[in-house]
Amino acid sequence: MRASHRDKGPLHGITVVVDAGEELWIGRCDEVSEAGVHLKDADVFREPTGRQDYLAKAARFGHWPRVAQALVPSDQVVSIEKLDDLNLD
Amino acid sequence: MPYSPLLVKPMRDELTAAGIQELLTAADVDQWMAQKDGVSMLVVNSVCGCAAGAARPGVRLALEHAVKPERVATVFAGQDTEATARARQYIADIPPSSPSIALFKDGELAYFIPRHRIESRDAHALADDLRQAFERYTATAVEA
Questions:
Q1: What is the DSSP letter of B67?
Q2: What DSSP designation does A25 have?
Q3: What ipTM was reported for this prediction?
Q4: Are strands A36-45 and A23-32 parallel, antiparallel or unpaired?
Q5: What topology does CATH give the domain A5-85?
Q6: How far apart are the first and last CA of chain B?
Q7: Which residues contact B31 (CB under 8 A, 6 or more apart)?
Q8: Cβ-Cβ contacts under 8 Å, B49 against chain A
Q9: Measured between alpha carbons, how far is residue B14 from residues A13, A43, B29, B46, B56 in Å?
Q10: Cβ <8 Å between B94 and A65
Q11: Can you give the pLDDT of all 144 residues of chain B as single tens digits?
Q12: B45 neighbors B77 (Cβ within 8 angstroms)
């Protein structure tokens, strides 16, 4: 039994990493719209160092869902990638 | 807020029909976790179709393998909230996600598959991951 919401785009329900410059967001993508990337159960990393370690831990065990909902504005989005696709070598 | 029991019943049945023990209360979880010998697997079930729709058949496929955990149980996130919260206390260092799958060896967490490693895989790929983990952590073969 599998329900889905394909009308929300291919990243709906997928855990993504959004590089927003000084902020790095990880969360479950709800949808990508003109306004930006809508995330649920998200976390944000704002430290000047340690980004790779943070990503490595998240890739292995998941991220802490500290923010119920977030919108990363389009003009801040540098890249968006599935957490499971990250190449951390 | 939990979904209707009628809606989630098929999602529960998909696992229990494969012989997976359902843990409905914190006491159920404590009792299950108290038995530490050997390899056991805990499946955090979920309504989410994006990931759980692959998780349940993936788990079922993996359990058809000759080498598998001696004990397998499930809690249902968002439904059996007390049981799920208690189960997460046993892996408190791991961020909560559902669906997810934890493999314990002699009571210690040995292997964990978080949600993001399920949501972009199909059931067969997840089953392959689980079978490899079963072979790594389970010393003795169990008849399928």
A1: S
A2: E
A3: 0.87
A4: antiparallel
A5: SH3 type barrels. (2.30.30)
A6: 38
A7: none
A8: 1-5, 13
A9: 21, 32, 20, 12, 7
A10: no
A11: 678 888 899 999 999 999 999 999 999 999 999 999 999 999 999 997 767 788 999 999 999 999 999 999 999 999 999 999 999 999 999 999 999 999 999 999 999 999 999 998 899 999 999 999 999 998 654 444
A12: yes
Burial B17-31 (b: 16+ CB within 10 A, else e): ebebebbeebebbee
Is B49 near chain A, with CB under 8 Å? yes
Per CATH, the number for B5-138 is 3.40.30.10
* Cβ–Cβ contact A1 with B under 8 A: yes
What 3-state DSSP class applies to A66?
A: coil
Every domain of chain B and the residues it spans: 5-138
Contact, A18 vs A79, CB < 8 A?
Answer: yes
Q: What does the longest C-alpha to C-alpha distance in chain B come to?
A: 42
Q: Which active-site residues of B does the annotation give? A: 48, 50
Give me the residues paired with residue B45 across strands: B76
* Whether the Cβ atoms of residue A80 and residue A17 lie closer than 8 Å to each other: yes
- pTM of the predicted protein model: 0.90
Residue B22 pairs in a beta bridge with: B74
List all residues of chain B from 100 to 119 with a beta carbon under 8 Å from chain A: 100, 112, 114-117, 119
